[in-house]
Design goal:
Layout: E1 2-5, E2 11-14, E3 19-24, E4 28-32, E5 37-40, H1 44-61, H2 65-81
Length: 92
């Protein structure tokens, strides 16, 4: 759920999974999967940031982000510190 502001200043909480698409024309217009349209005061960039933050929090709460991030970090460090090219062979 993300918090947004209607053009009249009222705040609302929206399930971001319901957003079908968003456009700036010039106000940010959200079209929901239900067909309903909402005008909000946030820019497309702010909307995107809030959705990404919400999804990252969901992943952190589920314990998914840290192991993935650590695996990626270890892989990058291994590549950076390798003194010779890494070769992968297949055991038959």
């Amino acid at each position: 759920m993300i918090e947004l502001t209607r053009l009249n200043g009222n705040r609302l909480i929206l399930n971001c999974d319901l957003i079908k698409y968003a456009e700036a024309a010039p106000d940010t217009t959200l079209t929901l999967v239900t067909g309903e349209k909402l005008l909000v005061g946030e820019s497309l960039e702010q909307l995107t940031e809030r959705v990404v933050e919400f999804r990252a929090e969901v992943m952190r709460s589920a314990g998914c982000v840290a192991p993935i991030a650590l695996s990626a970090l270890h892989a990058v460090r291994a590549i950076q510190t390798a003194s010779k090219p890494i070769s992968i062979t297949r055991n038959e």
